[in-house]
Amino acid sequence: MRFIKLSGREATIVRAIGFAEPMMGAELQDQTHMEVEDVTDTLNSLMSAGFVESLPYYDEVQLAEMPVTAFELNPAYANELRQALYRR
After folding, report:
1. What is the pLDDT of residue 88?
2. Is residue 60 part of a domain?
3. What pTM, to 2 d.p., does this model score?
4. 38 and 9 in contact (C-beta within 8 Å)?
5. Containing domain of residue 27, as a range?
6. Which residues are within 8 A (CB) of 57 and not within 5 positions of it... i.e. 6 or more apart?
7. If you ran DSSP here, which 8-state letter would residue 59 be given?
8. How many domains, in total, are found in the chain?
9. Residue 69's CATH number
């Protein structure tokens, strides 16, 4: 099992996305009260680690695409991410 440590921004994004349904980028920004650039950078770091997936699939999401892209947690990491949130 992999030990995941999330930064504060990453934990905020993971909590906002949740474990049930995908969430649009604009909704993420509204719910987290973070700047667009911060949300995009954090999502890109989570996507590069494989913890978050975008719908449609992107290797890296751009600022213009982020609000209209859906994001979901990778089900392969759901248990590890849940434990990382509890450890915070």
Report:
1. 66
2. yes
3. 0.93
4. yes
5. 8-87
6. none
7. S
8. 1
9. 1.10.10.10
Element (H, E) at 52: strand 52-55
How would residue 19 be classed by pLDDT, with cut points 50, 70 and 90? Answer: very high
* Each residue's pLDDT tens digit, 76-85: 999 999 999 9
For residues 15 and 81, is the Cβ–Cβ distance under 8 A?
A: no
Residue 87 pLDDT: 80
Peptide bond into 75 cis (omega under 30): no
Q: Could you give the CA distance from residue 72 to residue 88 in angstroms, rounded to a whole number?
A: 21
Q: Is residue 1 part of a domain?
A: no
Per the domain annotation, does 3 fall within a domain?
no
Residues written for the chain: 88
Smallest CA-to-CA distance from 60 within 72, 80, 74, 43 is with: 43
Percentage of the residues of the chain whose pLDDT score is greater than 90: 93
Q: Is 71 exposed, middle or buried (0-12, 13-18, 19+ CB in 10 A)?
A: buried
Token pair of 40, please?
Answer: 């995009």
